[in-house]
Amino acid sequence: MTKVGFISLGCCKNLVDTEVMLHNLHTAGFEITPNEEEAEIIVINTCGFIESAKQEAIENILDAASLKEWGKCRHIIATGCLVERYREEVMNEMPEIDALVGIGSLDKIAEACEAVMRGEKYTSFNDKETSSLGGDRIITTGPHTAYIKVSEGCDNLCTYCAIPLIRGRHRSRKIEDIVAEARDLEAMGVKEINLIAQDTTRYGLDIYGEYSLARLVRAITEETNIPWIRLLYCYPDKITDELVEELRTNDRLLKYMDIPVQHISDSVLKRMNRHGGKQLIIEAIDRLRERVPDIILRTTAMVGFPGETDEDFTELCEFVKETRFDRFGAFTFSPEEGTEAAEMEDQIDEQIKQDRYDILMQTQLTVAEEKTAERIGSVLTVLCEGYDRIAEVYHGRSFADAPDVDGRVYFKSASKLVPGQFVEVKILEAMDYDLVGEAMEV
Predict the structure, then answer these.
(1) Where are the alpha helices (DSSP H) in 292-335?
(2) Is the pLDDT of residue 199 over 80?
(3) Do 421 and 283 share a structural domain?
(4) How far, rounded to the nearest angstrom, does the alpha carbon of residue 127 sit from its chain's CA centroid?
(5) Residue 136 lies in a domain
(6) 393 and 367 co-located in one domain
(7) Mind listing the pLDDT tens digit for each residue in 228-243?
């Protein structure tokens, strides 16, 4: 049985694609190995969102190529966003690659493996906007948590973003298909599902004629008993009153929302082609905090966008300081080929971008330290994820912590716990973005 190893890069949406491909290969009779050095075929699911992601993809391809020389690897297959975006260039400039599989051809991954095993070069780039959405998966995030991709593509057309070029127009999955997937995950023991898309709040507009995320959440709540449902990638201009009310009243919909604002200066937001300006963003945040008092808000911001002045940047820093986001991430502008922003005048010097990033993150660190300190003495429900034998502590996440991007809760317990178990933890200490505590004994 041929062993296949996977390297999945980029966002959690890309990870879902990897999980679909893993299932397809397993069904086709291939053996999946987590050890790249054992793999005869290595599949690299690439990211191509920004320059640093492209460099990471190239480095991983070259690392895999070295295994062709001294390891068991005989073939390399590349798929994902970088491949979709730079088809001919990737194959021409990286002859180490034996096959390319585009976004619309993920269901061809087994066919690609079979072709390279016969010594053939293989490429498949079917129409990404007519390819099937969803599919059976092998979950790689552990037995207790999983992502559900509710839609594909994006219609927002932000001037800096290549996603619409790579992934195509926005396409929602049907509610009944998503609910069926949630039921399957529940049967596997999943306790937390994270609803994701390029723009989760746009869900349903294309097939139901209206924003339908709240309707979807209600359907999942009614048809499953999954304890935690989390929303990621919610755009402020599409947060409906219905969705806010669902957050307020649905006990299983976590009081957590990820809202990627990107900036707060109206002049920068306009050049970014973001939908809604400063006032809309502030009103959306105020509405959420007023109607859902305990809500955790996460956001991301971009620094160094073309034409961003010192005044624009100062305005962003003040906004972050005053708004006091519970969770925050930032990144520097990357001029992506084919986007409008890449051709704009007044590009910002790379050192200035980095300096602004450092200042912004330091501003948030002060807020984060204060926010975590406020948790000392409280009791949080924590989803246990594992045990650190070296530190001799368990670790997990509370409702306030999304997988991979937020902090963790580290705690001791007199009782033996297993991953996927919920436990009440009293918080005793704060460490930057993480919390330390002790399990409450029943």
Answers:
(1) 310-323
(2) yes
(3) no
(4) 24
(5) no
(6) no
(7) 999 999 999 999 999 9
**Structure tokens given for 118:** 């016969």
8 A C-beta contact, residue 198 and residue 206: no
Question: Which of 63-77, 93-107, 377-391 has the least mean pLDDT?
Answer: 63-77
DSSP 343: G
Q: What is the pLDDT of residue 429?
A: 94
The whole-angstrom distance between residue 434's C-alpha and the CA centroid of its chain comes to 20
Domain that holds residue 44: 3-124
Token look-up 């002049």 returns 267
Q: Give me the helices (H) in 5-128, please.
A: 12-27, 51-70, 81-85, 87-93, 109-117
d(CA 83, CA 100): 7
Do 359 and 417 reside in the same domain of the chain? no
Q: What are the pLDDT digits (tens) for 244-289?
A: 999 999 999 999 999 999 999 999 999 999 988 999 999 999 999 9
- Calculate the alpha carbon distances from 387 to 34, 390, 396 in Å: 20, 9, 9
Residues 426 and 290 in one domain: no
Q: Decide if 134 is inside a domain.
A: no
> How many angstroms separate the Cα of 319 from the Cα of each of 96, 152, 261, 367, 437?
47, 31, 11, 12, 32
Whichever domain contains 106, its CATH number is: 3.40.50.12160
Total structural domains in the chain? 3
What mean pLDDT comes out for the span 204-223? 97
* CA–CA dist 39, 1 (Å, integer): 11
Please enumerate in sequence order all residues whose Cβ is within 8 A of that of 37, keeping only pairs 6 or more positions apart, or say none.
67, 71, 72
The share of the chain scoring above pLDDT 70, in percent, equals 100
Same-domain status, 434 and 336: no
Is residue 353 a contact partner of residue 400, using CB atoms and an 8 Å limit? no
pLDDT band of residue 95 (cuts 50, 70, 90) is confident
Distance of CA 330 to the CA centre of its chain: 14
* Residues with Cβ within 8 Å of residue 13, at least 6 apart in sequence: 147, 149, 196, 197, 198
Tell me: pLDDT of 130 over 90: no
Length of the chain: 442
